[in-house]
């Protein structure tokens, strides 16, 4: 009996079990299909190829949900390569893992639900290389559900379910109806692939060569989300509203500001939309120079990343706005702005950048004599091994929720007005320092932080450190949450550029931080090793 006949026979004999699994989904309080059920189902199939194809279809199902914080074309390319490997025997599994490891840097540290779609792709590549061992040969498994394991070992299908539903069922996130829809689709997919496994169920198109070229630029750390820059952007918006008060009193859908800030000239123009119609708006001359200041401040955050040369601000009637910066795509500049190759030569001289942050079309303009900045920060970061420490444990997640509750209470007790997001930052470098901000309509205001929050953050740091002491303890932590209590959390273990300047005025703080939480030499960046000197005692 060949494999197709065998699998067909299996599915016929397992109809009742599939229906029972659908009943489990219906009866579950959060519409989750437990890991034990999926392990039993897929182990009964027992075919590595089909299991990984199920996982690949899960990735393609949720891929459109991937957020744009990270260059999505790179992950789409990887997913296409995995699809080609599974359905057409093209490529090598080791190459998929190598690319997945590289792209983890884009996904790591992102806790937004959209990023689960990215993690699903990464997990798929590992599953292909491991012959689906995490599902078919799961070690010492005793029927635990997904929530009992660290996110590092979650399976592709669980990542995909979180992306589709919008959150983790074990911390009461996401839409139960969407989760039910996903898992029923999942069972349909298993049945279909068991009947016919040689044809992909969902098509995904590989990115065009030009898209790939544009998206090989590393992820940037520059941000406009600082109090000083947000204040300047708000000033540009206020100037625009004041000049167009008559227009703005009438109904409108959006005001768009287009700013081209190049060494050879600064150009700012705007228009208002109503339906499909565009109407020109006045712009302040002063606003031209404010945007140029914004560009300079962002460039100084990380010069190796270059400076943006074009920005788009879209203002909504409720006075909220979005802003986008163009660093690499020349085609985004309107033709009537008359930017040519010489302008980009002059621009590079004023705002040099590292070669890896310079697109190929710009490198061709500059020629072989261009003096690129050395990207020592990126090289150093890439040299640090991948960490296994995670905040995704029940105890730490509970502490994060407590921080969110306490910060919300502090706002209610000591602040006035409304808020869209609250930011809590901790600097644990020698001692613990905390700062709090609330953001409303993109305006940032300071707020107090409770002492108990500082204690909780210190406990989180210590608990994560104990998971793998050799990896070191994080130096900074930032939690951002919205009114629905959905949060993003970021940790900084090594990035010198993101540390407060006063740290380097008092290097003994870094010495103290190392003595308190020593780490392996491999996990200690070169700039820190230089501060510590030859007598530093690194963990083995």
Structural features, described:
This protein is an alpha+beta fold and 540 residues long. It folds into 3 domains: 3-214, no CATH class; 227-374, Murine Class I Major Histocompatibility Complex, H2-DB, Chain A, domain 1; 394-532, Murine Class I Major Histocompatibility Complex, H2-DB, Chain A, domain 1 (2-Layer Sandwich), CATH 3.30.500.20. 48% of the residues lie in helices and 14% in strands. It has 22 helices and 10 strands. The protein has helices spanning 3-13, 15-27, 35-45, 48-62, 72-88, 93-107, 115-129, 133-136, 156-165, 176-195, 209-214, 227-243, 245-249, 285-301, 341-350, 360-366, 376-383, 394-414, 451-467, 502-505, 508-516, 526-532; strands at residues 254-262, 265-274, 277-281, 310-315, 321-326, 421-429, 431-440, 443-447, 476-482, 487-492. The strands form 2 sheets. The chain has a 5-stranded antiparallel sheet with strand order 3-2-1-4-5. A 5-stranded antiparallel sheet has the order 8-7-6-9-10, sandwiched between helices. Helix 4 runs antiparallel to helix 7 (115-129), helix 4 (48-62) crosses helix 10 and helix 5 (72-88) runs parallel beside helix 7 (115-129). The radius of gyration is 26 Å and the shape is globular. It starts with a helix and ends in an 8-residue tail after the last helix.
Number of beta strands: 10
Largest sheet: number of strands, sense, barrel closure: 5 strands, antiparallel
Gyration radius over CA? 26 Å
Give the overall shape, derived from the CA principal axes: globular
Low-confidence stretches: 1-16, 211-215
End-to-end separation: 54 Å
Strand order of the biggest β-sheet: 3-2-1-4-5
Helix content: 40-55%
Q: Tell me the quaternary state.
A: single chain
What structural class should be given to the helix and strand makeup?
alpha+beta
How confident is the prediction overall: mean pLDDT?
83
Number of helices: 22
Please indicate the count of domains.
3
């Amino acid at each position: 009996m060949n494999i197709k006949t065998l699998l067909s026979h299996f599915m016929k004999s397992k109809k009742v079990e599939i229906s029972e699994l659908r009943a489990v989904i219906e009866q579950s309080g959060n519409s989750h299909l437990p890991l034990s059920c999926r392990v039993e189902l897929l182990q009964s199939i027992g075919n590595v190829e089909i299991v990984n194809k199920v996982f690949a279809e899960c990735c393609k199902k949720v891929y459109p949900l991937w957020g744009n914080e990270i260059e999505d074309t790179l992950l789409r390319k990887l997913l296409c390569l995995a699809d080609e490997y599974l359905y057409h025997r093209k490529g090598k599994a080791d190459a998929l893992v190598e690319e997945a490891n590289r792209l983890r840097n884009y996904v790591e540290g992102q806790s937004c639900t959209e990023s689960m779609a990215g993690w699903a792709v990464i997990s798929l590549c590992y599953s292909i290389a491991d012959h689906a061992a995490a599902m078919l040969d799961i070690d010492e498994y005793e029927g635990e559900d997904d929530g009992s394991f660290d996110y590092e070992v979650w399976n592709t299908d669980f990542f995909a379910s979180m992306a589709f539903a919008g959150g983790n069922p074990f911390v009461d996130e996401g839409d139960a109806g969407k989760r039910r829809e996903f898992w029923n689709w999942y069972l349909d997919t298993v049945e279909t692939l068991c009947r016919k496994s040689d044809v992909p169920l969902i098509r995904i198109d590989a990115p065009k060569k030009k898209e790939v070229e544009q998206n090989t630029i590393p992820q940037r750390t520059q941000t406009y989300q600082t109090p000083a820059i947000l204040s300047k952007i708000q000033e540009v918006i206020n100037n625009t509203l004041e000049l167009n008060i008559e227009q703005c009193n009438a109904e409108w859908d959006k005001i768009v500001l287009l700013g081209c800030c190049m060494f050879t000239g600064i150009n700012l123009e705007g228009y208002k939309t109503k339906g499909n119609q565009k109407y020109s708006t006045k712009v302040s001359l002063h606003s031209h120079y404010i945007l140029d200041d914004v560009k300079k401040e962002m460039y100084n955050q990380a010069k190796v990343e270059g400076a943006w040369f074009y920005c788009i601000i879209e203002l909504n009637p409720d006075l909220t706005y979005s802003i986008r910066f163009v660093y690499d795509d020349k085609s985004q500049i309107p033709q009537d702005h008359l930017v040519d190759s010489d302008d980009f030569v002059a621009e590079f001289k004023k705002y040099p950048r590292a070669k890896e942050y310079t697109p190929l079309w710009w490198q061709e303009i500059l020629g072989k004599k261009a003096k690129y900045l050395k990207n020592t920060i990126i090289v150093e970061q890439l040299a640090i091994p991948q960490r296994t420490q995670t905040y995704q444990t029940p105890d730490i997640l509970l502490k994060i929720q407590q921080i969110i509750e306490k910060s919300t209470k502090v706002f209610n007790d000591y602040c006035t007005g409304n808020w869209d997001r609250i930011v809590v930052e901790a600097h644990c470098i020698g001692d613990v320092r905390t700062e709090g901000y609330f953001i409303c309509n993109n305006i940032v205001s300071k707020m107090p932080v409770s002492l108990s929050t500082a204690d909780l953050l210190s406990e989180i740091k210590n608990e994560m450190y104990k998971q793998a002491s050799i990896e070191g303890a994080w130096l900074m932590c930032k939690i951002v949450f919205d009114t629905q209590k959905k949060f993003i959390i970021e940790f900084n273990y090594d990035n010198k550029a993101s540390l407060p300047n006063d740290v380097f005025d008092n290097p003994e703080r870094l010495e103290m931080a190392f003595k308190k939480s020593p780490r392996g030499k491999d996990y200690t960046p070169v700039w820190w090793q230089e501060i510590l000197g030859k007598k530093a005692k690194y963990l083995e």
